[in-house]
């Protein structure tokens, strides 16, 4: 006889995760992007699913397989990501791991821009919506636990603490994405991460670990914070 399967610590919960970069079109063949691989966000979605949660992963363009047992909502732009997040709510917890492009082209050219021997085009930018701040500051839609990320290249903990307050999230997972971080191959695109967890009670410095181990540890903390199902 098989032993009964233990329900995971997130059984009965809906967990929303954003992951990857966004691509912001300039014209039909060009876009603004960043170096995010999506590895950390995807690892969090996978770990939450292993812990028994129903997981929705809203992800920008990545070269990763869909994590097992996760509902994936692929998007391209920040505005599409916000719409997909809004459509996926309500959730018990949301982890905003995506590297959302801060700016997009103010006007998207309908046809490929040509050199035409003329002046070099000026690229006018406009700000994208802040998905995390939008959801965290909306009491009607806010998941009980909202976790943001902060990728910094200097003053990592200081900037991340300011970000936690400004964005209205419960926790911030902060990491150093500078080439000086000491992570072999770099954090962005690499398989390891060294993070600082900033909560309402202070800062925890986690050791360098695989993105998968960081995800497991974060998911365990999320399950503990949510507590048992009513
Ligand atoms: N974020 C978001 N929508 C945006 C920008 C950021 O949801 N338009 C989220 C990210 O997913 C992350 C957190 O906000 O969880 C912090 O992102 P970050 O880029 O570090 O913060 P910014 O406020 O954009 O500040 P800056 O890039 O100037 O450091
Ligand atoms: Ca940003």
TrEMBL record:
Catalyzes two steps in the biosynthesis of coenzyme A. In the first step cysteine is conjugated to 4'-phosphopantothenate to form 4-phosphopantothenoylcysteine, in the latter compound is decarboxylated to form 4'-phosphopantotheine. Catalyzes two sequential steps in the biosynthesis of coenzyme A. In the first step cysteine is conjugated to 4'-phosphopantothenate to form 4-phosphopantothenoylcysteine. In the second step the latter compound is decarboxylated to form 4'-phosphopantotheine. This is Coenzyme A biosynthesis bifunctional protein CoaBC. Keywords: Decarboxylase, Flavoprotein, FMN, Ligase, Lyase, Magnesium, Metal-binding, Multifunctional enzyme. Its cofactor is Mg(2+); FMN. The keyword Metal-binding applies. Pathway: Cofactor biosynthesis; coenzyme A biosynthesis; CoA from (R)-pantothenate: step 2/5; Cofactor biosynthesis; coenzyme A biosynthesis; CoA from (R)-pantothenate: step 3/5. Signal peptide: none annotated. Residues 10-224 form the DNA/pantothenate metabolism flavoprotein C-terminal domain. GO terms for molecular function: FMN binding; metal ion binding; phosphopantothenate--cysteine ligase activity; phosphopantothenoylcysteine decarboxylase activity. Residues 15-230 are annotated as: Phosphopantothenate--cysteine ligase. It catalyses: (R)-4'-phosphopantothenate + L-cysteine + CTP = N-[(R)-4-phosphopantothenoyl]-L-cysteine + CMP + diphosphate + H(+); N-[(R)-4-phosphopantothenoyl]-L-cysteine + H(+) = (R)-4'-phosphopantetheine + CO2. It comes from the Bacteria. One of its GO terms (biological process) is pantothenate catabolic process. In the C-terminal section; belongs to the PPC synthetase family. Binds 1 FMN per subunit. One of its GO terms (cellular component) is phosphopantothenoylcysteine decarboxylase complex. The keyword Iron-sulfur does not apply. Its EC number is 4.1.1.36, 6.3.2.5. CTP binds at residues 102, 112, 129-132, 149, 163, 167.
